[in-house]
Amino acid sequence: MLDPSELELINQENMEEISQLASLEMSGNGVASREETSAVVSEKTSYPDFVYVMAANIFQGIQIEKSPERVLIKYGKEPLLSWPQSDDESLQRSSYELAFSTLKYQDILETILIDSCIFPSTTIVNHLNSLIIVMLYDFQDRKFQPRVLPDNEESISEVQEVENLLNSFKTKLAASLARCRIKHDALSIYHILPETVRKQELRASTLPLYAWINTCKISPEEVYGNLRRKGYNKVKSVLHLDDKVFAVDQHCYDVIIFPSHLKKDLKNTDLFKDYKLIFQDKSRSLAVHSVKALLNMDDDILMVNTGSWYTVAHMSILTNNNTSKIFVCGVQSQDKDPDVKKLFTKMGCQNIEILHETFVDIESKDHRLQNVKVILLLPRCSGLGVSNPVEFILNEHEDTGLLKDLSQGGPSESKLQILAQQQCEQLTHAMKFTKAQAVVYCTCSVYTEENEAVVKKALECQNQGIKIQPYRLSPPVLPLCSLKEIQLSTDKFFRMEPSEITNGCFLSILTRERDPSETVSVKDVLARAAAKGLLDGIEVGKSAKREKRRKKSKTSLPKPSGNDSNSIQMKITEFLTRERKTSRSMPQGGVSSQIRKPSKSTTNPLVPCERQTNLGRTRPEGRVIPLKHVEIVLPPVMFPFSSTQGTRFQIPTNHFCYRFHAMNFCNRLSLSMRRNHRKFWSSRWA
């Protein structure tokens, strides 16, 4: 052991380096300068007592349990004294962040407590050990400086007791921390963490904020104008997010991106207070927009494991102009129904129905779900693609056990298999709903076992019924805005890798193979076109009526006239009618491969000569060949929104299909030929 003078020397030389344990604002190599570290510590605010208590209870529930021979400190089963939950979201977030940081360094902190002789010399009961280790993490983060609290701050006796204990061992704790750093040959003990955890922390420090627009309350243009009046400037790329700026997301037209440091300022604006803008992870917006692109006008939706109610609200708002109904299953607690309905009312959502059964317990033939055409499945996953797990857990109401896996760099192999089995079970059950036509499967995992393997296994295990068309893997309906996204989606899966601008996301779309006997109605085609933003300024109702009138005009026959001058026209009309009936009786196959021969010219000078064409067989004289409907579909064209005018919110995707309908052209050509034919005969008879 070192004498007190050596301990003081170590304390002076290494104080600033060993205090970088929780400092996440590091440079690329993870080492901050001494001036920056001092500034961070001087500006760091002290936690109130009840934050320590909340963090200790959270840590006690997620702490890593060890085998009996490796147990250094026992944390007990009994939680600390109950303390009323604070409505302050920032304090609640601070409690989770403090517990998560302590969890990441649990082994190091336990070693420091043993090496400094705090254990087993103290007589504090076991259930306070979680409070000791949580407060030790914050103590070294403050460079072992005492807390500064307001005079009116209410104190808790257990917190004061632990704080006095740590202050009495201040020098020994600092020396033990320095020895731990030297033992691992690390510039700071931050570098002792697994590489995946360090990369995750680095991404979390730069991850921007994503917020979607509640179009039931405000339009995107109004949001942009409101932000500009508040001093925000619109930019094109998230790479330029600094100061007071915002950008429009390229995948979702109603999603805005902000720098992370503006969250506190934005939360105080009317846009967020009035639920006109809602903070949420982008992966959830990608999922609901994928569902929207698959919907027809009157299709219902079933949402499974939605987590946050904001996901349900976003889906409701996107289908506000339709008559669709949204069913949400898995809400077992009915006590929250009044609060949830109140939230939906504030946000302007009216087409939501809550089901209290779990998804796997709902029968596929449930009478309430007979009009459900699309199922959105958001299963619980490992969440390794999430850069800031605390934000994700609080916003999406995920299980706090996720923090335990992420603190170690990922789940164990056994837990990963359990998650994959549950996901496959839910996906297989979703494919049993006979009326459903599509399933959207979305996770925040980067593991193949939870993504591609689950989808492929479910497709292999589906029931190949005679009356039900099987599911197949469909390409993404979201726009691919970069070469990397195109490369990642070559196998029909949509992937976003974790980066400094977004969390990781995996999307898969399963659709039933179309029954050849079924025909798609005009209403459904127009609904899908409207969902993709291809009917800008065109009303669907009028288009349907126009289509009906067009069909009616095709089937109706002109009434014969009693005038002698129109007798020839009557004969022509009767002839065309007979030919039309003959064409309808012909088999409806593809274009014949046989080549028609050119018709021979007639010797009668009164009969007009038809234009000679290079055909294979003789065409009967005067016969009118009915023209068939030919549809030419060009491949989709993608634009990465690189125009100077910015993104238009009316176009939710960048996929455009240009169709050339030959029928209208042929109708006009046929009409022109008839008119010329009539003029010719009129001149002859005259």
TrEMBL record:
Under the heading InterPro entries, the entry gives:
MeTrfase_RsmB-F_NOP2_cat, MeTrfase_RsmB-F_NOP2_dom, NSUN5_7_fdxn-like, NSUN7, SAM-dependent_MTases_sf
**GO biological processes:** methylation
Q: Which residues form the active site?
A: 444
Q: Where, if anywhere, are coiled coils annotated? A: none
Taking every annotated instance into account, which residue ranges of this chain make up the domain SAM-dependent MTase RsmB/NOP-type? Answer: 199-513
The similarity annotation says: Belongs to the class I-like SAM-binding methyltransferase superfamily. RsmB/NOP family.
Q: Does the keyword Methyltransferase apply?
A: yes
MF terms in GO: methyltransferase activity; RNA binding
Record PANTHER family:
METHYLTRANSFERASE NSUN7-RELATED (PTHR14663)
Q: What is this protein called?
A: NOL1/NOP2/Sun domain family, member 7
Compositionally biased, Polar residues: which spans? 584-614
Chain positions covered by the region annotation Disordered: 541-614
UniProt biased composition (Basic residues): 543-554
Q: Which SUPFAM superfamilies match?
A: S-adenosyl-L-methionine-dependent methyltransferases (SSF53335)
Q: Name one Pfam family in it.
A: NSUN5_fdxn-like
| Protein keywords | Methyltransferase, RNA-binding, S-adenosyl-L-methionine, Transferase
Q: Which gene encodes it?
A: Nsun7
